[in-house]
Amino acid sequence: MQKQAVLNLLGLARRASRLTTGDQLVLSAIRSGEAKLVFVASDASANTRKKFSDKSSYYQVPLVTMFSKMDLSQAIGSDRAMIAVTDAGFAKKMQELLT
């Protein structure tokens, strides 16, 4: 139930233009401090998961890996394996739902 609520919030954040998607754009959002929460698909490649895990921990951005690529893609309406939430309010609510 909580997981579905997070996916619904991702869709809402997408419509509000509060997401950054795609490999390079998410990395630059993490580096610039723009990313408040990062989602990486659980079925993304091991190298991709490691790269985003390392970047997220270095820049102290929370990372979520519990959703599959299909879950994330359906939530935002486009085929993506990594998503950065750039709005602090959305990120806070999603983290509350995940804990």
UniProtKB/TrEMBL annotation:
One of its GO terms (cellular component) is ribosome. Signal peptide: none annotated. Residues 5-93 form the Ribosomal protein eL8/eL30/eS12/Gadd45 domain. Keywords: Ribonucleoprotein, Ribosomal protein. It holds the Pfam family Ribosomal_L7Ae. NCBIfam families: PRK07283.1 (NF005585). This is Ribosomal protein L7Ae. It comes from Lacticaseibacillus rhamnosus (strain LMS2-1). The lineage of its organism: Bacteria, Bacillati, Bacillota, Bacilli, Lactobacillales.
